[in-house]
Amino acid sequence: MILQGNQRQSSRIEFGAHQVVLVASNEARETMPDELKQGLVMTIYEAKGLEFDDVLIYNFFKDSQAEKEWRVVASYMQDQSIANASGSTGLVEITEESVTVQRSARPLEFDPEKHKVLNSEFKYLYTAITRARVNVWFFDEDKVYRAPMFEYFQRLGLVNVVAIGDRDAGSGDLVNMFAAKSTPEEWRKGGIRFYKHRLWVPAIQCFTFAGDKLMLQKSQAQQQAAEATKFRSTNRQQMRDEFLRAGESFLKCDMYDEAEICP
């Protein structure tokens, strides 16, 4: 499903423990709108190897390292004569008009040297899509960068398009579309899974929703220690200060072994 539009709903959307919002980077996670923070938010890299029932891929193209390079997809559609998919059969119907059809994105001929960034971006896109067992949702605010892939998905008949805010078109209530409440125990189980995978940020999110204060404190202490290591090669003094704070947090949780190894 593609959610097409630039207006976010003001209502908060309560996601469940088996759903996830995937973003391109930690920076993108920090700038998420409030209405999407009532659930699990992970980077695509963090989600590698994990599966969820439903996945919302948020602003993938807006935050992509590729920009005009996405227009290569429009060139591919032109070369392959990909027309609009037939809604009744699921097959792609190719007509003479489809070869010269006007597209929303101007085609860009692929150059292996100039467009290397697409190698990693397509891998990230594949990883994001394949995290879902049931539903994949796309929402992207950048009309230009999203256009080639959105059109490609539509032409192959792979998606349903929902125009946000267009009630007459049958978009329905987005809050009800996404909402899937989970019990505190379900959130706790999710937190334990992430804790075992040493994914401290999503573990913190899950234990927060679960109301498990002890595991929340343990996850926060682990995250503090992980953040401290980032300064190892740039600021040794700050690294020591961060490890000191992490050690204090470990002691508050009776995690003496972890506190002892903090430099």
UniProtKB/TrEMBL annotation:
Residues folding into a coiled coil are: none
The yes or no answer to whether the keyword ATP-binding is present is yes
Tell me which InterPro entries the record gives: DNA_helicase_UvrD-like_C, P-loop_NTPase, TRANK1
| Keyword Nucleotide-binding attached | yes
> Per UniProt, which keywords does this protein have?
ATP-binding, Helicase, Hydrolase, Nucleotide-binding
Domain UvrD-like helicase C-terminal positions: 26-137
Among Pfam families, the record links this protein to:
UvrD_C
Top-rank taxon, per record: Eukaryota
Q: Which GO terms describe its molecular function?
A: ATP binding; helicase activity; hydrolase activity
Name the record gives this protein: TPR and ankyrin repeat-containing protein 1
Which gene is this protein's source?
TRANK1_6
